[in-house]
Amino acid sequence: MAARDRIIVGLDIGTTKICCLITEMNESGELEVIGFGVSESKGLRRGLVVNMEQTVEAIRGCVEDAERMAGIRVDEVYTGIAGGHIQGISTSAVIAIKGEEITEIDRRRVVEQAKDFAKPVGVEIIHVLPQEFTVDDVSGIVNPVGMAGSRLEARVHIVTGSVSAVSNISKCAQKAGLGLQDIVLQQIASAASILTPDEMQLGVIIMDIGGGTTDIAVFNEGAIRHTSVLSLGGDNITNDIAVGLRCPIAEAERLKIKYGHASASRVSGDEQIEVPSMGGDSVNMVPRRILAEIIESRVEELFKLAYNEIRNTGYSEMMSAGLVLTGGASSLEGVAELAESIMHMPVRVGLPRGVKGLVELVNSPAYATAVGLCVYEAGKPSYSFKPKGTGVFERILERMISWFKEVF
Predict the structure, then answer these.
(1) Rounded CA separation 324/380 (Å)
(2) Nearest-angstrom CA–CA distance, 196 and 347
(3) For labeling, which of 172, 214, 285, 388 is most exposed (least CB within 10 Å)?
(4) What is the DSSP string of 79-108?
C-alpha cells in the first residue's frame, strides 16, 4: 500500500473528457504513475460547468477506474481550470525599504501590493506569478531577498477566474466525494509537463488545444509573461465536420480522430472514406481530402487568431524556442506543419514528461494537463521526498517553484 503523503492526484476536468491520474513519489524523488482513468465529459461547455450532475458522474467514473488500477482510495485531488472566464493581467508595485537589506517580508509585501492593485470585482485570484524584481535601478532580479537597496519593485502576472466558475468546479469535486487541494491554471499545469527550462528562458508559447477552448501562455526569461484563452477548440472542428459531411456528431469525432489531417494538399484526392448519414440508415463515400479541407479551414482560423494574440503582446519576436502544441486536437496529423506556416516560428507537439511507471497510459498531448498537475504540485515543500540529481524533471520543478508558488 502506498504511503498517503507520497500520493499526488491530478484531476483534469475538461470539456470533452475528464481524467484522473494517480502518482506516487518514490524515495528517489521520481513520480510514478500508478493509476489512470478517463471518462467522457458531457456537463461542461467551454470550460464552464453547465450540468453538475453529469460532471459529478464523470468525475466519479474516472476516479474509480484510477483507484482500481492503483489499488488505493483517493480523497483529495489537484485540478486544473480553463475557460473564457479566465483573465490574465500583468501589473507592478513599488515599496520603500527601511532596513539594511531586503527581507522575505518585503518581498511578500510588494507582491501583495501588486495583487491588490489589480484585483477586479467579482473574480477570484487563482495565481499571483512574479515575473521579475527591480532593486533601485537594477532590474531582472529573480529573488531580491538579502540584497541591499532602498526601493523594491515587483512585476507580477495575475490570473483570475469567475467566482461562480471556480466555485462550481469545487462543488463538483466535493459532490464526487473529493477534497480539492488546489486549483491550477491549465496552461501552467501543461507547461510543467511539456516545457523545458531552456524553452522558458529563451521564449516559448504553449497552446493547449482543448475541446472547448484553446489556452495560451507565453514564457520569456524564465517567467510567464502572458496568458489568454481563445473560444475555439476541438469541438468546433468536430461540429464543422458534422455539418459539412452531414453526419452525426459522434461519427464526426470518430472521422476526425481516424482520418483527420490539417493539410488538405497532403491528402490523396483518390482516397475515399465511409461517412454514415445523419439518420444512420445509409453510408456515403466521401473523398478524405474533403474532410481535410474542413479541418484545415478551422485549424487555420485558430492559428491566425493565436498569431494575432501573440503579436499584440509584443513578445512575438522574442519566442526563440517557438511554439509548443498540446491538448487532444494537437494530435491531428499535419497540425504542426500548418502552425509553422501561419505562426512563422518552429513548432513541436509536446508530450507529457516528468513521470515514470505506467507512462504508456498518458503518452499523449491529451493528458499533458493531468500529468502536469502532478508534476507541478510535486514541487511543494510539504512532500518529504524531493527530486535529486540534475535531470530535466528536477530542473522543471525548480523553475516552477521559483516562479509559480506565489499564491496568496
Answers:
(1) 26
(2) 14
(3) 285
(4) EEE-STT-EEEEEEEEEE--SSS--HHHHH
Query: CB of 295 within 8 A of CB of 333?
Result: no
Say if residue 196 is exposed, middle or buried (CB neighbours under 10 Å; 0-12, 13-18, 19+): middle
Is pLDDT above 90 for 278? Answer: no
Question: Is 305 strand, coil or helix?
Answer: helix
The domain spans of the chain are 4-84+163-195+351-404, 87-160
The predicted model scores a pTM of 0.86
Rounded Cα distance between 22 and 204, Å, is: 29
Q: Which fold has domain 4-84+163-195+351-404?
A: Nucleotidyltransferase; domain 5 (3.30.420)
Classify 407 as helix, strand or coil.
Answer: coil
DSSP 76: E
CATH number of 87-160: 3.30.1490.110
Q: Which of 91, 89, 141, 88 is nearest to 111 (CA)?
A: 91
Q: Name the pLDDT band for 282 (thresholds 50, 70, 90).
A: confident
